[in-house]
Amino acid sequence: MPTLEGYLVVSALLFAIGAFGFMARRNAILMLISIELMFNAVNLSLVAFNAYLGPAENTGAVFALMIMAVAAAEVTVGLALVIAIIRTRQTAEVDQYSDLKD
Amino acid sequence: MLAIGVVGGGLAVVTLRNIIHSAVAMMICFGSLAGMYALLGAPIVAAAQVLIYLGAISVLILFAIMLTQAGDASLPPPYHRQMPIAIVVALGILGLVVWAVIQTDWGAGAELVAATVDAIAIALFTTYALPFEIISVLLLVAIIGAIYLARRPEEDERAG
Questions:
Q1: CA pair distance B111, B94, nearest whole angstrom
Q2: Which of A5, A30, A67 best probes binding to B when mutated, by most B CB atoms within 10 angstroms?
Q3: Chain centroid to CA B130: how far?
Q4: How many beta carbons lie within 10 A of that of residue B53, not counting itself?
Q5: Closest to A12 (Cβ–Cβ): which among B40, B57, B98?
Q6: Are B127 and A57 in contact (CB under 8 A)?
Q7: How far apart are CA A19 and CA B54, in angstroms?
Q8: In this structure, are residues B130 and B54 in contact, taking their beta carbons and an 8 Å threshold?
Q9: Checking phi first, is residue B99 left (phi over 0); if not, alpha (psi -120 to 50) or beta?
Q10: pLDDT per position as a tens digit, B48-75
């Protein structure tokens, strides 16, 4: 029988993996995927809280659905931005986006 | 079992060199998460996870990869110089959250409270009706923004 703590630990693991991927990888699309992993970690903890603590009106599940909608909007705009940048710079490596520094 | 799918899929996403393999690992991770939502008694969230993440976002990301990485045979090294710092920070986040989870007395019942579709629908269209409407406007704005950003500049000149 899994417990609330078990779900929260899995959620924390997934969030840490997403944070690591966002900070360590050099590919712009993979950074977006890592953001999605972090969104999903938060969603998992919300649904777990909703299931075990049972608030009135299922706040956790409703919030999880809304986070999914906002994440879909975010990934749409984010991928459009990344594709536009890759088209002008011909690379997906974030290290080479250094126009403002040079 | 599903936890292994979630965490292993997530680890594979950030460690695999080929970005298409990462995207497939991401789909495994999201599919296992959908199973977890079903186990947690939230079938509507599980269905939304399958539709939005497995169906829409994964396909979107795969298309973006295939549009941008065509013919990219030589794979560059995947990690930044700051990778060791990133490991330390990520482990710090993990440790902090796990410590907080273990320290807190949640007072949780052992039995699950299922979030039925009826209850969620009633909450969504009464208490949370305003956020629900705002999300529809947000999605419209996101669609228009994405079309504007992804358009090639030379198409403007041809059109106008």
A1: 27
A2: A30
A3: 24
A4: 25
A5: B98
A6: yes
A7: 21
A8: no
A9: alpha
A10: 999 999 988 999 898 888 887 755 545 6
Q: Which region, left, alpha or beta, applies to residue B79 given φ > 0 means left and ψ of -120 to 50 means alpha?
A: beta
pLDDT of residue B50: 92
**A61/B42 touch (CB, cutoff 8 Å), yes or no:** yes
Of the CA atoms within 13 Å of residue B39, those in its CB half-sphere come to: 16
CB A25 within 8 A of CB B90: no
Q: What is the pLDDT of residue B72?
A: 56
| Cβ pair B41:A58 closer than 8 A | no
Classify residue B77 by its DSSP letter.
P
Q: What is the maximum span of chain B, computed from C-alpha positions, in angstroms?
A: 65
Rounded to whole angstroms, the Cα distance separating A37 from B6 reads 10
Q: What's the complex ipTM?
A: 0.86
Task: Classify residue A33 by burial, with Cβ atoms within 10 Å: 0-12, 13-18, 19+.
Answer: buried
